[in-house]
Write a structure and sequence with these properties.
The complex is a heterodimer of chains A (163) and B (191).
Chain A lengths: L2 H5 L2 H5 L5 H13 L1 H18 L10 H15 L2 H33 L4 E2 L2 E2 H17 L13 H11 L1
Antiparallel strand pairs in A: 1-2
Helix pairs in contact in A: 3-4
Chain B lengths: L2 H9 L3 H23 L2 H17 L10 H22 L7 H11 L10 H19 L3 H11 L5 H8 L3 H25 L1
Classes of the chains: A mainly alpha (163), B mainly alpha (191).
């Protein structure tokens, strides 16, 4: 057995997992080879740490903490919290619908908000336009074709003054 | 009380029986978690999750296996999941320095009157070197090696814990030893 073979079998030699034949060969080589003998000694010291591996002690509060976790688990399974969880399930879509309705309402309100035109609010201009339209309709007038150019107010005043 | 009766009492929510199980096996579960994870605090947290899972799913226990085998299986799975989740988050890598410190503390050799300080320091250094070598093994090799060497489980029981064949377990442990040998010899050559 050469040095390379010996080094490849250190662990199995230490663990007594070699065949009798190989173990004898190894022991014979270690007797005559000082390098391998020294290396085996150093390797044994490392390997012994595994045999003397220390176990740790659990914390003295291990059971107390575990009991707390079990209590929390059991409380999460109780019916009184069960219905609450069901309610939360409905809450999400309800909130979504509510937000949508609010947005629609806001959009509608903003769209109908009175705007100023020539110093008058939109509602006031609409009332005047409606009155003029009713006048034209009653006199069978087409405001676009039958009336001379100019402001509609001026035309209206001319027409009523003719009456 | 045999295993079957104990489990049945736990299913029936008998607190005393569950505490009896915890008292009997907490040492085993905490140590196997610690040997895989390497951090005491994390090992205890994972061990708590193991017992909580036992509490929740005691009815899934198959009575043809021992309770200890079942606990080993849950502990190994939980520990490996914890390690994988820890690796996934890069910011947790900064805790690896704490990991090394924890290993050093746990593997300190108690000083004795016959030990000189330099001898004690050498022992401590060897512990760290060997633990690092074991931690660097591939996951399955490390798990099989830890269960066999630190927990003293026979090969047959390891097959039940890991769900592998006997030949697979033998192969894993053999390769783990070869890898450890290579790493430790490399360290000795550099020394």
């Amino acid at each position: 057995m050469n040095c390379k073979n010996v080094k490849n079998n250190f662990i199995f030699f230490l663990e007594n997992e070699l065949t009798e034949e190989k173990r004898v060969e190894m022991e014979g080589h270690l007797k005559v080879c000082s390098d391998c003998s020294h290396l085996r000694e150093e390797f044994s010291k490392l390997w012994e740490t595994i045999e003397h591996h220390e176990k740790i002690q659990p914390s003295p509060y291990f059971w107390t903490r575990l009991k707390q976790r079990i209590t929390e688990y059991e409380e999460g399974r109780k019916p009184v919290l069960g219905w609450l969880k069901g309610l939360i399930g409905w809450a999400r879509p309800a909130v979504g619908v509510a937000v949508l309705l609010i947005c629609v309402f806001l959009g509608y309100s903003l769209g109908n908000f009175p705007q100023a035109v020539n110093g008058q609010t939109t509602s006031q201009v609409d009332e005047r336009t409606l009155a003029l339209q009713q006048f034209f309709d009653s006199h069978y007038l087409n405001p676009l074709n039958d009336l001379p150019t100019g402001s509609i107010e001026a035309t209206y005043l001319d027409v009523i003054s003719e009456e | 009380m045999n295993d079957e009766e104990l489990i049945q009492k736990i299913i029936d929510r008998d607190d005393l029986s569950f505490k009896s199980l915890v008292d009997q096996y907490q040492h085993l579960v905490v140590n196997v978690c610690y040997n895989l994870i390497g951090n005491r605090q994390d090992a205890e947290d994972v061990a708590q999750e193991v017992f909580l899972q036992v509490y929740k799913s005691a009815q899934t226990f198959r009575h043809e296996a021992k309770i200890s085998t079942w606990l080993y299986r849950i502990a190994v799975n939980r520990s490996l999941n914890f390690i994988r989740d820890k690796k996934r988050f890069g910011w947790l890598r900064s805790l690896s320095s704490l990991l090394e410190e924890d290993r050093k503390r746990a593997t300190e050799v108690p000083a004795s009157d016959s030990d000189r300080p330099d001898v004690a320091l050498e022992k401590k250094e060897r512990n760290v070197i060997v633990q690092k070598a074991i931690d660097s093994l591939p996951e399955k090799q490390r798990t099989a090696f830890v269960l066999h060497t630190y927990e003293g489980l026979p090969y047959r029981e390891i097959t039940e814990v890991l769900g592998l064949s006997l030949s697979s377990v033998e192969s894993l442990i053999h390769r783990a030893k070869l890898n450890l040998q290579k790493k430790l010899l490399r360290y000795l050559k550099q020394k």
